[in-house]
């Protein structure tokens, strides 16, 4: 029972964050200097925003860099204020200065908002504490945070990766069960495919996260790490066999009417799903897997296959279900894998050179955030607020990458703050002793961190009450901050929303065409691997995963674009249909990868003809996406003479290829129609795809 409590992801995270915040407060409470303890507890928030709680092979190096940036940000802001530089210009200068970190790497890019939060905390202390004391406060706080996190992950080894792996197995279970639970209702892709696409998106997002975690492990050859990497490779093989589809609804319906296939397939799918969830718990709670066998379930499915040899559905399900059962029983990958490399960080001077270009996305993001903070500081000065730190902090907290994420965070933040202020006002009218108030703050902090990753809005209520308690203890003026805090939160949310709308917005609608072009490129590379009959199984697995990730990027962009304002809905509807056919194509590529490993049956001449045909179609689709001009490719589907076909090739590899060709032809038609339906303003007036970079 204790394993389910202590290893539970939310409990473990809440316990870690609560201890790292409250231990300094406890120490200085014993030293009768509670105010310093509360000030020191601000630093872990900066470290968490900066990603310094991420296990990394260069953990202490990143900690030193992060701590140095915090000290520089604090000292520089205070000196700029001493030199009478207006606060709006101070915030703009700091943002543009630290924005170069995003050009180095995404992980280093998290240090920029952390350094800005440090500057905002410094603003609240400027004039009340000496410059050197504030700087030392951030240096000591960063050192304490790094020491605590290092010891925590020594105690709970591999916990972040175990949590991600457990979540991956659980999402695979949900995806697999949902895919086969409505077997006879897959005749309408418009209804059956969207929920499956959402499931697959979650799976691919977790796989990408685990890749990043693997490359941050200091010693991949350690036995503990090797076991986790092996479990990840098993999950990759499971994802390959789970995502394949036959896409023959007529044959499915025929088999269901002639036999008990639907009940048998559902029972097999349920058994596999339950086993995946058990393995997810075993990984998370450090348990050894129990023996597993599906002989009875698979024998019933094999019987259906023998009774209906002319129907490909039974053979298809039996083959993939048996491979999945083998993976679940042996807990060893079926194929060799090459772990996908991640982008290395740029050297500082090269990053600085790229950052100074007007085409730099990091520069645009920094300019957007800097101008928003400058506007917030300017409004604060206009309202005679010498330290509008709450407006600036609200801007930093609610500003996210993308319109939809920012809008949702603003809703949660504003509602949570409003309810928290009302609850805090009622609580502050009741007079407690200081010790009881500290205990209530401890409980609220733990409960807020317990739910913050799943329900941010409710967690904000607890954080707001805790902030009011802190002000009440330090200055005995918590009641005086109720209305100003609410007004500052509303102002900060409005500014963040306005900047996401008007200051260099990164609309996903505008990126759909580029993402579609990149996805077609990865499809072409993977087809070359398959048709060239490569003997490098690891490379084949690598390109297959790139195909799935490229499609996931496209699908994610489409989901976000559907939430963005001001765009032509007919264009998005056409692109949704394009993405649907892209999903079908990816599933066929997954199935072809398995066949290419196990039972490749195409003769070289026929394989080359199919490859040439697929490349012509893919390149034609790319041209339609790239150039808005007249097209003379009215007959783009070359005829491939397949010659003699045996039964196996006709029902496996060639069937998948023929459907891929059909989907590519449809995608070409949709590309022509969708581009005509595009919005006709702003960057959409550019005709060529390469101009969008």
Task: Describe the protein in words.
Helix content is 75%, strand content 0%. The protein has 693 residues and is an all-alpha fold. Among the domains are: 157-184 and 204-214 and 227-330, no CATH class; 357-506, no CATH class; 508-626 and 651-685, no CATH class. Helix 11 (159-181) runs antiparallel to helix 15 (261-284). The longest helix is centred in the C-terminal third of the chain and has 30 residues, at 569-598. The two termini are 54 Å apart. Residues 639-651 have low confidence and may be disordered.
Structural topology:
Blueprint (H helix, E strand, L loop, with lengths): L1 H5 L2 H22 L3 H7 L2 H7 L9 H24 L4 H12 L2 H4 L1 H4 L1 H15 L5 H25 L3 H23 L7 H26 L8 H21 L5 H10 L2 H24 L10 H13 L4 H19 L17 H8 L5 H22 L6 H10 L4 H26 L5 H18 L4 H20 L6 H21 L5 H24 L5 H25 L7 H30 L5 H23 L20 H5 L1 H24 L17
Helix pairs in contact: 2-3, 2-22, 4-9, 5-6, 5-9, 5-10, 6-9, 6-19, 9-20, 11-12, 11-13, 11-15, 12-13, 12-26, 13-17, 15-16, 15-17, 16-17, 19-20, 19-24, 20-24, 21-23, 21-24, 22-23, 25-26, 25-27, 25-28, 26-27, 27-30, 28-30
């Amino acid at each position: 029972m204790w394993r389910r409590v202590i290893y539970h992801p939310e409990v473990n995270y809440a316990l870690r964050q609560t201890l790292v915040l409250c231990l300094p407060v406890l120490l200085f409470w014993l030293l009768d200097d509670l105010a310093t303890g509360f000030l020191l507890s601000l630093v872990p928030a900066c470290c968490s925003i900066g990603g310094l709680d991420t296990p990394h092979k260069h953990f202490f190096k990143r900690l030193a860099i992060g701590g140095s940036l915090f000290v520089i940000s604090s000292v520089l802001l205070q000196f700029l204020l001493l030199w009478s530089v207006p606060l709006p210009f101070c915030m703009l200068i700091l943002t543009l200065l630290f924005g170069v970190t995003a050009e180095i790497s995404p992980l280093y890019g998290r240090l920029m908002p952390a350094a800005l939060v440090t500057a905002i905390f410094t603003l609240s202390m400027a004039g009340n504490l000496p410059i050197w004391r504030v700087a030392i406060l951030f240096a000591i706080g960063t050192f304490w945070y790094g020491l605590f996190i290092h010891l925590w992950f020594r105690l709970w080894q591999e916990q972040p990766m175990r949590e991600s792996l457990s979540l991956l197995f659980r999402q695979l279970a949900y995806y697999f069960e949902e895919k086969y639970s409505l077997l006879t209702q897959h005749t309408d892709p418009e209804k059956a495919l969207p929920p499956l696409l959402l499931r697959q998106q979650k799976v691919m997002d977790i796989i990408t996260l685990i890749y990043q975690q693997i490359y941050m492990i200091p010693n991949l050859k350690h036995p503990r790490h090797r076991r986790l990497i092996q479990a990840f490779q098993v999950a990759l093989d499971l994802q390959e066999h789970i995502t394949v589809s036959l896409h023959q609804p007529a044959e499915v319906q025929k088999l269901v009417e002639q036999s008990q296939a639907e009940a048998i397939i559902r029972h097999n799918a349920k058994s596999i799903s339950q086993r995946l969830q058990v393995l997810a718990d075993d990984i998370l709670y450090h348990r050894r897997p129990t023996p597993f066998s599906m002989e009875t379930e698979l024998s019933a499915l094999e019987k259906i296959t023998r009774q209906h040899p002319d129907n490909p559905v039974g053979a298809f399900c039996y083959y993939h279900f048996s491979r999945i059962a083998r993976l679940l029983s042996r807990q060893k990958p079926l194929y060799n894998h090459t772990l996908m490399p991640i982008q290395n960080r740029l050297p500082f001077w090269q990053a600085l050179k790229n950052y100074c270009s007007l085409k730099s996305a990091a520069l645009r993001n920094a300019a957007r955030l800097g101008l928003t903070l400058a506007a917030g500081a300017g409004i604060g000065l206009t309202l005679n607020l010498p330290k509008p730190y709450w407006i600036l902090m609200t801007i930093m907290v609610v500003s996210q990458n993308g319109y939809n994420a920012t809008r949702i965070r603003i809703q949660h933040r504003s509602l949570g703050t409003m309810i928290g202020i009302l609850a805090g006002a009622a609580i502050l009218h009741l007079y407690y002793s200081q010790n009881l108030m500290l205990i209530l703050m401890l409980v609220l902090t733990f409960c807020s961190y317990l739910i913050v990753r799943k329900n941010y809005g409710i967690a904000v209520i607890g954080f707001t009450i805790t902030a009011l308690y802190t002000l009440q203890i330090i200055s005995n003026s918590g009641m005086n901050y109720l209305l100003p805090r609410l007004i500052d939160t509303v102002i900060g949310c409005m500014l963040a929303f306005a900047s996401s709308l008007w200051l260099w917005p990164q609309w996903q609608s505008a990126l759909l065409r580029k993402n579609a072009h990149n996805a077609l490129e990865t499809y072409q590379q993977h087809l070359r691997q398959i048709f060239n009959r490569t003997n490098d199984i690891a490379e084949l697995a690598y390109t297959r995963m790139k195909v799935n990730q490229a499609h996931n990027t496209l699908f994610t962009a489409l989901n976000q674009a559907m939430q963005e304002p001001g765009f032509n809905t007919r264009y998005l509807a056409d692109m949704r249909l394009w993405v649907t056919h892209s999903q079908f194509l990816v599933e066929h590529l997954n199935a072809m990868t398995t066949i290419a490993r196990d039972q490749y049956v195409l003769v070289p001449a026929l394989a080359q003809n199919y490859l040439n045909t697929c490349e012509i179609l893919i390149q034609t689709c790319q041209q339609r996406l790239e150039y808005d001009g007249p097209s003379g490719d009215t007959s783009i589907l070359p005829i491939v003479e397949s010659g003699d076909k045996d039964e196996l090739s006709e029902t496996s590899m060639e069937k998948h290829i023929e459907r891929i060709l059909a989907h590519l032809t449809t995608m070409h038609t949709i590309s022509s129609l969708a581009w005509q339906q595009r919005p006709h303003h702003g960057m959409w007036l550019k005709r060529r795809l390469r101009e969008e970079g």
